[in-house]
Amino acid sequence: MDGDRPPVRKITRRRAPRPAGARERRGDRALAGLRRTFTRPEEFARTFGASLAPWRLAAVGVVIILVLGFAWVRLFHVGPPSVEDLRRAAGVDEWRTLPIGVKDDQPGLAYRDPGDGSWRGFDIDIAYMIAEDLGFRRDDVRFYGIESEDRARMEATDLAGNPVPVKMVIASYSITAKREAEPNVMFTASYLHTEQSVITLRGHDKVSSLEEFKNKKVCTLSASTSADTASSSGAVLIRRNRVSQCFDELNRNHVDAVSTDATILGGYKARDPGRYDHWDLGDDKTEAWGVSVGNNEALRDLVDLTLYRSATDPKDSRWERAYESTIATEVRANVDPEGHPVPLARPQQPPPRRPDVRELPWEEVLS
After folding, report:
1. Which domain holds residue 310?
2. pLDDT by residue (tens digit) across 286-322?
3. 199 assigned to some structural domain
4. 145 and 107 both lie in a single domain
5. Rounded to an integer, what is the distance from CA 205 to the centroid of its chain?
6. What is the largest CA-CA distance in the chain?
7. How many domains does the chain have?
8. What is the pLDDT of residues 142-162, one digit of tens each?
9. What is the pLDDT of residue 233?
10. Buried b (16+ CB within 10 A) or exposed e, 32-55
11. Which portions of the chain have biased composition (kind: Basic residues) (predicted)?
12. Whether residue 312 is found in the same domain as residue 239
């Protein structure tokens, strides 16, 4: 993953409008050429050679007709939408900026530096990757902090505390059937796989399951999948909207542990390794994070196209670079007191979903 990297293919954000009827004229010219070839002997002989046997001539004709028919289907909007169709349906070309809801208190994932106001982390890099393919420059991307319970509403908050509608949510948002059934939630394919874990203050007794916190206080995020697991263990749940609030409670000894996705906790452990113990729960359940696009189905397909290219194109290493520069740097710090590594996330991009997109003859959309 080190060394020079090839340039990333981009989708142009705004294109000059193609003259009306351009495709039709191009198709008409092709048909006219074929008509001359088959109706004028001298044209046919010049093209294919006068010595071809009749049966060979017939075979060539059939092949040409099939090719022409296939090209006609590809050119004239029969079948799935093209990228241009998806952009038009999503409304992307009408947006001057791209507002995205992200977490702002998760080191290594999505963190806003209170000093200089910069954003960094894995989720931030994934957001930039998607924005680039949609045709937005980095300066056109607007990040807004979003709390867990507001993700389904696609409503973040600006620095002044005002609500801000966003076009997509990239905020450690696990894909579940329950969430997908909500009226304003539509997920892309997963862009990261992780699992649940738990953090305690340094010096805590060994932890191997959440059942060991029965009747003890465990802080977790509101509207999170981790809350259901912690609740079933018999722990006394303390719900907060921000994971930073949970760590404030832990630091004050108001709770016994913090439990949520391991990738989130790993950032806090890496930032202050001497204060916390991170414990692997051995949970087989995978937390698959996805991008929510509200009800914009065309935008979902465009984001899926980016994730598909990232996963299948050997020249596209943007996902790997994002992982190596963020989550991978925290692995060494995240070991339990016995020296066993605590898994943070799978170091490979999850299998993508191949979007149903029509490729025009001159395009390379899915390759």
Report:
1. 83-193+295-330
2. 999 999 999 999 999 999 999 999 999 999 999 999 9
3. yes
4. yes
5. 38
6. 93
7. 3
8. 999 999 999 999 999 999 999
9. 83
10. eebeebeeeeeebeeeeeeeeeee
11. 8-17
12. no
Class of residue 27 by CB neighbours under 10 A (exposed 0-12, middle 13-18, buried 19+): middle
User: Per the structure block, which two tokens stand in for 287?
Assistant: 């937390």
| Judgement on whether residues 71 and 92 belong to the same structural domain of the protein | no
- Can you tell me the distance from the alpha carbon of 200 to that of 206, in angstroms, rounded to the nearest whole number? 10
Q: What is the pLDDT of residues 193-221, one digit of tens each?
A: 999 999 999 999 999 999 999 999 999 99
Report the alpha-carbon distance of residue 103 to residue 169 in Å, rounded: 9
Question: Which of 308, 330, 335, 331 is CA-nearest to residue 319?
Answer: 308
Give yes or no for a contact between 125 and 134, defined as CB atoms under 8 angstroms apart. no
Nearest Cα neighbor of 190 from 27, 350, 11 is 350
Give all strands of the β-sheet with 236-240 in edge-to-edge order. 236-240, 217-221, 257-261, 196-201, 276-280
C-beta of residue 77 within 8 angstroms of C-beta of residue 120: no
The first and second tokens of residue 79, run together, are: 């079948």
Two tokens, residue 62:
């059939």
Q: How far apart are CA 363 and CA 367, in angstroms?
A: 9
Q: Considering only CA atoms, which of 99, 231, 71, 235 is closest in space to residue 155?
A: 99
